[in-house]
Amino acid sequence: MTEENKQPVEQPEEVEVELETKDAEQAVEQTEEVEVELETKDAEQAETSEEVQELSEIEELQAKLDEQENSYLRLRADFDNYRRRVQRDTEAASKFRAQSLVTELLPVLDNFERALESKPQSEDAKTLLTGVEMVYRTLKQALSNEGVEEIVPTGEAFDPNFHQAVMKEPSEEFESGIVIQTLQKGYQLKDRVIRPAMVKVSE
């Protein structure tokens, strides 16, 4: 074998050093990989923690928003109810503003009707009665303009919402529960009864 073909023979010590160097490099690489992996996990955990925190804050804000919205809806409903109640009371006050006056005038109407039922004999009395009748008609027209209506239920079925039974008697002409005589007229203002009719009912 010539000197040119001779290969240098590595010494055992050099091999050991080289192996140790490789082991050290591998250890460093593994350590770096572990550190990178740990840093990645830490970053992922931190990101997850931030996401959880953000989600929790969003849920808390959403809960507060829902609470405020519910409060607003309740307040709106209360206000709508109040507005409707005020409107209803205002309409009722306007609709029945004349009730107290009409109630006080009913005895006056009764007296007019009693006077008109009389049979005057003298001409002066007849003239006076004519004047009374004119006043009576004018008063009735004014009350009618305010929505006042008479309740004269003779021949109708007895209705406790409109009639007050003060007498009962057998009747061959009417079946039981029929008003056979109106003893005193009743009156209603629009759809509200201000005085029920006093009646006699068949039994």
TrEMBL record:
Q: Write down the SUPFAM superfamilies for this protein, in alphabetical order.
A: Coiled-coil domain of nucleotide exchange factor GrpE, Head domain of nucleotide exchange factor GrpE
Q: Does the keyword Chaperone apply?
A: yes
User: Which of UniProt's keywords are assigned here?
Assistant: Chaperone, Cytoplasm, Stress response
List locations, semicolon-separated. Cytoplasm
**GO CC annotation, single:** cytoplasm
* One Pfam assignment: GrpE
* BP terms from Gene Ontology: protein folding
Query: Which domain of life does the protein's organism represent?
Result: Bacteria
Main localization, broad class: cytoplasm
Q: Which InterPro entries does its entry note?
A: GrpE, GrpE_CC, GrpE_head
Q: Name one GO molecular function term.
A: protein-folding chaperone binding
Write down the HAMAP family for this protein, in alphabetical order: GrpE (MF_01151)
Q: Which family does it belong to?
A: Belongs to the GrpE family.
**Described purpose of this protein according to its UniProt entry:** Participates actively in the response to hyperosmotic and heat shock by preventing the aggregation of stress-denatured proteins, in association with DnaK and GrpE. It is the nucleotide exchange factor for DnaK and may function as a thermosensor. Unfolded proteins bind initially to DnaJ; upon interaction with the DnaJ-bound protein, DnaK hydrolyzes its bound ATP, resulting in the formation of a stable complex. GrpE releases ADP from DnaK; ATP binding to DnaK triggers the release of the substrate protein, thus completing the reaction cycle.
Q: Tell me, how does this one assemble?
A: Homodimer.
Protein name according to UniProt: Protein GrpE
**What is the organism of origin for this protein?**
Tetzosporium hominis
